[in-house]
Design a protein that fits this description.
kinase; alpha+beta; Hppk_sf; folate biosynthesis
């Protein structure tokens, strides 16, 4: 019999997750949706070790819809990467997310950015998706889980919140920490990414 991959690990791993949304859900506003999703993650997936503030960020690509609310968490979990991604997708669906348009408007987006220092499925595939031209990014998505997330190093709406929860995490391929990647962003790239006043009062 061929051994089947386990859905969990004996030891816990820190996963880095980006959250975003820009349209209302059955819960309420994007901020309320993200707050509820974080509670759901804590109840079903693992232990939240750190959570960033909530940020208002311009819609990406520009003009595609309302501004987003974004955040990031460091989650300690026993789930293996693929079951963890499946759990994120189930939570997205519970909040009304429909995967009908790449980079389209959505009630909730939960992106698995990194799982410890794991590289999946292999270095060559990671390099190929990380270096994919932007016009192709709009049209194509990987068939399998790619870790670290191939676009995390270039997106202010990911790196600014992520720098609040895991500044010392080092990209296993690029060799740069989150803090270094955040510092390398241009002022233009960071324009409009601002903490929400509500985030000072919002709990996980």
């Amino acid at each position: 019999m061929v051994p089947q991959p386990s859905s969990s690990h004996k030891t816990e791993t820190i996963a880095l997750i980006a959250l975003g949304g820009n349209v209302t859900s059955s819960i309420g506003t994007p901020l309320q949706t993200l707050q509820s999703a974080i509670r759901e993650l804590a109840a079903e997936v693992g232990t939240i070790r750190r959570r960033s503030r909530f940020f208002r960020t311009p819609c990406f690509p520009a003009g595609a819809g309302p501004d987003y609310v974004n955040a990031a968490i460091a989650l300690e979990t026993r789930l293996a990467p693929r079951p963890l991604l499946d759990a994120l997708h189930r939570i997205e669906a519970a909040f009304g997310r429909e995967r009908v348009e790449r980079w389209g408007q959505r009630t909730l987006d939960l992106d698995l950015l990194a799982y410890g220092d794991l590289v999946l499925p292999d270095l060559a595939t990671q390099d190929r998706w990380r270096n994919l031209p932007e016009q192709e990014q709009r049209l194509r998505a990987p068939d399998d889980l790619v870790l670290p997330h191939p676009r995390l190093q270039e997106r202010a709406f990911v790196l600014i919140p992520l720098a609040e929860v895991a500044p010392e995490w080092r990209h296993p391929v690029l060799g740069l920490t989150v803090a270094q990647m955040r510092e390398s962003l241009s002022a233009e790239a960071c324009e409009g990414v601002e903490p929400l006043a509500e985030s000072r009062r919002a709990g996980a």
